[in-house]
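Q: I'm building a small set of examples for a reading group on sequence design. Run inverse folding on the following structure and report the sequence directly after it, with nothing in between.
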């Protein structure tokens, strides 16, 4: 992302690499876990890898997904993004994990269909977008430049993007890369920015509240919406789904105030 000093300050899964435009992170259909329910009854009916893009010209047109709303997930290479995506989608191996941090160097698109529910209004279709992990990948300067253009182009220009979930290890807190991303996203104030505090189960109960409170303070003193999550225990799944569905109800002209809520 752009440097903190150079960019605007207005407001504010590690699948194994697939050959761009072909196949997916896994050739084998992932096993479905027990169907998950989110707050109000969100249930994933179907989820599958749809496309991968290593260059800007490989990013699929929004028409491929019938202009469905997109939710992007970003975070460090070892933050547990793939595990969180699998938890959210109630799938055991859709987003593939890797023992090599930073190995995923493309944007992966997952086509998500949600089951209808009479008591809770949910969009029938969403696209989860897994952005490449950052912080550990060893790449050349030219590759890093192309990678930066791919990510920033998507985040700046994608018209169907409604929210960006920034994953942060709750034990580490916001670091420079995360702060830069928050400030970069301020250039599109209509986007909902959510912070998923991962690995909350690794902290004692007494340490969780102050750690989450620190995460809720943004780089410029703004309040961030934080959800405590754990892929091991399933904590935070319902709340995060609720926040995602709320973001999809918002018209692009405005961005609601989360009030710095911590869940």
């Amino acid at each position: 992302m752009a440097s903190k000093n150079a960019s605007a300050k207005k407001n504010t899964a590690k699948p194994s690499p697939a050959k761009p435009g072909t196949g997916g992170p896994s050739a084998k259909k992932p096993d479905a876990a027990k169907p998950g329910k989110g707050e109000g009854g969100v249930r994933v009916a179907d989820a599958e890898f749809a496309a991968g893009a290593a260059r800007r010209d490989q990013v699929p047109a929004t028409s491929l997904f019938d202009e469905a709303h997109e939710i992007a997930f970003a975070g460090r290479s070892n933050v547990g993004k793939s595990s969180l995506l699998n938890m959210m989608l109630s799938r055991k191996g859709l987003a593939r994990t890797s023992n090599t941090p930073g190995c995923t160097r493309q944007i992966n698109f997952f086509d998500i269909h949600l089951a209808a529910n009479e008591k809770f209004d949910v969009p029938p279709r969403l696209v989860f977008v897994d952005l490449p992990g950052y912080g550990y990948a060893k790449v050349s300067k030219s590759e890093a430049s192309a990678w930066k253009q791919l990510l920033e182009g998507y985040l700046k220009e994608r018209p169907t993007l409604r929210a960006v979930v920034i994953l942060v290890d709750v034990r580490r807190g916001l670091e420079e890369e995360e702060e830069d991303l928050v400030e970069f996203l301020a250039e599109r104030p209509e986007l909902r920015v959510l912070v998923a505090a991962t690995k909350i189960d690794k902290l004692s109960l007494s340490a969780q509240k102050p750690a989450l409170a620190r995460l809720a303070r943004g780089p410029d003193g703004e309040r961030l919406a934080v959800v405590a999550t754990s892929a091991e225990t399933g904590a935070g799944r319902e709340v995060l789904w609720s926040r995602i569905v709320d973001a999809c109800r918002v018209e692009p002209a405005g961005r609601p105030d989360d009030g710095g809520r911590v869940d």
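The helical segments are 81-89, 141-157, 176-185, 205-215, 237-249.
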